[in-house]
Amino acid sequence: MDNVESLLEELTNAHGPSGFEGPVRAIMQRELSGLCDGLDTDGIGSLIGRLGEDGGSPRVMLAAHMDEVGLMVKLITKEGYVMFLPLGGWLDQALINQRWVIMTRNGPVLGVTGVKTPHVMTAEARGQLFKREQMFIDVGASSKEDAEERLAIRPGDPIAPDSRFTQLNGGALYLGKAWDDRVGLAVIVEVMRRLRESPPPNTLYGVATVQEEVGLRGAHTSSFAVEPDLGINLESGVASDYPGISQEEAQEKVGSGPAIFLHDSSMLPSLKLRDLFVDTARENDIPVQFDVLSGYGEDGAEMQRTHKGAPSINIAVPTRYLHSHNGIISREDFDRTVDLVEAVIRKLDADTVRELKSFD
Ligand code: CO
User: Fold this and answer.
1) Hey, is 188 helix, strand or coil?
2) What is the four-CA torsion angle of 35, 15, 259, 354, rounded to 10 degrees?
């Protein structure tokens, strides 16, 4: 296991649902503090690292979000079961019979979403889908008081999926939760590590945002703080290389290189930036893919429309099974994404950014 793999493992294992990104922020703070000339937070917890002169230009913002999809404690029943609501977009069926960590003020509490045993069901009932409203988390408490006093669970406590990083069967694929968007954070760290050695012709802001999964909220506030000339968002992409998903829905394949988003429901990227990424990939023999999605939404949208607006793009590491306990990425795709983003940032001098921003 090399340093990059350890960082990916640490980031993906960390618990940090939307609004409760503390453990992830601590990792990013540790990593970025040695690589940046300035490190600050916005008012809701996004971490902003600056490489280069304060007040320098052009200002390039590289962003990825720290939060993962999770749940929140709604109430505890008198028998001691935890009822919850979702933070971010879950498929109801992905919630059933999984392990979770409730992040209480006294530390983590393990729980499981119970599922009714098939032994008592009619054939018809067995074929039905379970609805989120029927679900609960079993923490092994004997009563409401036991859950509240011994386990320190309170309404409002965040709940994170519990799933550990694994190198999938010794290959170059990594299995884990929350690649969305811990993989983007690791790209920021590795890009800034390389640029620290020989700085780019711009002031680069590496931003780890909060609350993306509940509406791009940290990207909104941090874009105001940075006021970028140009935005590059790093995300986990939508692979469509497994049974039951078609090219009509998404176009990325795991192992075929970084993806450039051309459409999602939150943003239309700058085509000048698309072409800069494609040309730079060709020059460096990096394979790239395109993705045109009808749904999705990402922090690039907030960078794009902050202040007077800034050309922006979303670059993604292809990922299978987003928003669940077990996703898959490829190490090769990760490394190629770092190569590509680094190469593009090295080109972003004042003239190039002026041209990218111009409509002449
Ligand atoms: Co995401």
Assistant:
1) helix
2) -40
Q: pTM for this one?
A: 0.96
For every residue of 255-300, DSSP letters joined together read TS--EEEEEBTTB---HHHHHHHHHHHHHTT---EEEE-SS---TH
| Three-class secondary structure of residue 137 per DSSP | strand
Say how far apart CA 153 and CA 236 lie, in whole Å. Answer: 32
pLDDT above 90: residue 118: no
> What is the Å distance from ligand 1's center to 338 Cα?
17
Please tell me the distance between residue 74's alpha carbon and the centre of ligand 1 in angstroms: 24
Per-residue confidence band for 53, with pLDDT thresholds at 50, 70 and 90: very high
Span from the CA of 147 to the centroid of ligand 1 (angstroms): 32
For 177-223, write each residue's pLDDT tens digit: 999 999 999 999 999 999 999 999 999 999 999 999 999 999 999 99
Cis before 181 (ω within 30): yes
SS (H, E, C) 312-343: EEEEEECCECCCCCCEEEEHHHHHHHHHHHHH
Taking the C-alpha atoms of residue 204 and residue 38, their distance in angstroms, rounded to an integer, is 11
Active site residues: 212
**Tens-place pLDDT, residues 299-330:** 999 999 999 999 999 999 999 999 999 999 99
Ligand 1 centre from 50 Cα, in Å?
A: 22
| Alpha carbon of residue 61 to chain centroid | 16
